[in-house]
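Give me structure tokens for this 77-residue protein.
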Amino acid sequence: MTVLKGWAKMSIFKIIFNDEEQDEVFNTEEEAEEYALYLSSCSREGSEILHMSNPGDYDYDEDTYEDPEYEVVEVDD
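Here you go.
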């Protein structure tokens, strides 16, 4: 929270997921982190499903799968 001339300005947070800034905004860093983890799990599940539907085109190994990178950033209004 930032204080500007007697007014408290609430911080907002966004996620940069796989080098792309997401549209969603969050009131707390914890909410943003939780959503980023959700996106990571969706990415893993999507990779599994693509591999099951067409293993020749979509290689997937549960042991070597690397979760997507993300960063939670504080942004100004």
